[in-house]
Amino acid sequence: MIPNFKAHPWHGISAGQNAPEVVQVYVEIVPSDTIKYEVDKESGYLKIDRPQKFSNIIPALYGFIPRTYCDEGVKKLAVESGSEDVSSGDHDPLDILVLSSHNIHAGNFLMDAIPIGGFKMIDKGEADDKIVAVMVGDQSYGHFRDISELPAAEINRLQHYFLTYKNLPTETSKCRIDLVYGADHAREVVVASQKDYAARFGG
């Protein structure tokens, strides 16, 4: 009998047949988590990265798009869109935040999502884009197709989390958001990260 092996969520699962219009997402963290979980790059298992320092809770489902990597292509897009002092991509899979009205209690699952925009975040000189997406079929968010359709307060809430979640109250943020972009640019970032993955890992 051939044993069953778990596919590595970064390398062993595709970004989806319809990427970048609809992408498959591996979700690591949900809004109720007070621990930041992250996939262990070697084993593929979900591990504890760190406890959340304060009461800033992830505002939506959070994870990454499989078989993506942020390197020279993602850096190039950041520079072309006006970012300065960018040394590279962050050498991680492409992060994605998925808006949904559903109360999901734990991460470590796959889902389909539609990218509607994102944040051009620069973290210590590295391009660390955060794609914003909506859950396919979600009753409250599923009809959105561009981040410009979201209320300004929702966009501000998402930005605030990414600009503050790593910092102590007395610290100045070490990252910045240079651009809030729409669905077209989000798809470009996804494609660039797929090309960066192929260049780094093949396939």
From TrEMBL:
UniProt cross-references to SUPFAM superfamilies, sorted A to Z: Inorganic pyrophosphatase
Record bears the keyword Metal-binding: yes
GO terms, biological process: phosphate-containing compound metabolic process
InterPro entries noted in UniProt: Pyrophosphatase (IPR008162), Pyrophosphatase_sf (IPR036649)
Record keywords, A-Z: Hydrolase, Magnesium, Metal-binding
Its EC number(s): 3.6.1.1
GO molecular function: inorganic diphosphate phosphatase activity; magnesium ion binding
Essential cofactor(s): Mg(2+)
This protein's record includes keyword Hydrolase: yes
Segments passing through the bilayer: none
Organism domain of life: Bacteria
Pfam family, one: Pyrophosphatase
GO CC aspect terms: cytoplasm
NCBIfam families for this protein: PRK00642.1
PANTHER family: INORGANIC PYROPHOSPHATASE
Name listed for the protein in its UniProt record: inorganic diphosphatase
